[in-house]
Amino acid sequence: MVGLAALTFTVLEPTGVERPLVVEIPHAGLLIDPSAMASLVAPSRSVGQDADLFVDELYAGAPRLGASVLVAHASRYVCDLNRDETDVDSHAIDGGSGSAHPHGLIWRLTTEGRPALNAPLSAAEYERRLNVYYRPYHAALKRLLDSKLERFGYVVLLAAHSMPSSGRAGHLDTGAERAQIVPGTRGRTSAHGSVIDCPERLAKRYNWSVVHDQPYKGGYTTGHYGRPPTGVHVVQVELNRSLYMNEHTLERREPGFSATRSYCDDLVKALAALPGQPLKPAS
To answer: How far apart are CA 255 and CA 252, in angstroms?
Structure first.
């Protein structure tokens, strides 16, 4: 168990001058351990399509730019780290009594609506996943945020994600084309305006389209940790996958990959350089 836990996420400390910025990447991983594999019937293609493939590589320059980075390695089909611990489909856990949402902490269906589990998980397996994956990840994230908050008086958390270029079957916007950059801030409530506007300002330099909060307004991490009055500012940034990859073959695509990586570097630099005074709690 200790060996497995050590593989579930990585914390990358700044190699450049430390900045009050944390980048968390919860969905890029593909790890599925044997216990989780035994109950999983989702097609391997769905595992790839529902991962934020390559986002960890796109933000690989963040430590050099002074950010702390938290990267999860497990597939979201094992445990979705951007959900509340209690967001459990009543049909996904044996004896569960949570919501009927099939894409909660444990995904019962793929995005296209195919079965992801061969049967509801036992309560013991659910608790195992919480203890091995979910709780250690969020404990590490909280430690990073608390450390930055103590040192700088404020902290910016960039929740780094990617999204399909159009709504797939099972999405509320099925078939609709999506913007190239989607900042999610729960209706501009999870961060100061300077943080919220930063992804859009940079995207305009690349001639990329931006829509805030649609179709993703920010998940659990954004809502739970984003508390501007306390000095914690969170913005979730969704990158349109068509910018940097072939969504059918699931391969990187150039020159888009290099351009998107440059955008991610620029975003990290810009967020790290924001003036601290409006971001600090009012005295």
So the answer is: 9
H/E element holding 20? none
Q: What is the pLDDT of residues 147-201, one digit of tens each?
A: 999 999 999 999 999 999 987 766 676 778 899 999 999 999 999 999 999 999 9
Residue pLDDT, tens place only, 198-236: 999 999 999 999 999 999 999 999 999 999 999 999 999
Encode burial over 93-104: b for 16+ CB neighbours within 10 A, e otherwise. Answer: beebebeebbbb
Locus of tokens 């179709």 = 215
Q: How many Cβ atoms are within 10 Å of 148's Cβ, its own excluded?
A: 23
Nearest residue to 111 (alpha-carbon basis) of 52, 47, 175, 61: 47
Torsion angle (degrees, nearest 10) of CA 99, 100, 101, 103: 100
- Is 56 in contact with 28 (CB distance < 8 Å)? yes
- 183 bridge partner residues: 237
Residue 261, both tokens: 């990586």
Give me the helices (H) in the chain, please.
Answer: 2-6, 34-39, 44-49, 55-58, 123-129, 135-152, 193-205, 220-225, 256-272
Other CB atoms within 10 Å distance of the CB of residue 69: 24
Give the tens place of pLDDT for each residue, 83-98: 999 898 888 998 766 6
Domains and CATH numbers, the chain: 2-78+130-275 (3.40.630.40)
DSSP code per residue over 225-247? H-BGGGTEEEEEEEEEGGGTEET
Tell me the C-alpha distance between 91 and 118, whole Å. 11
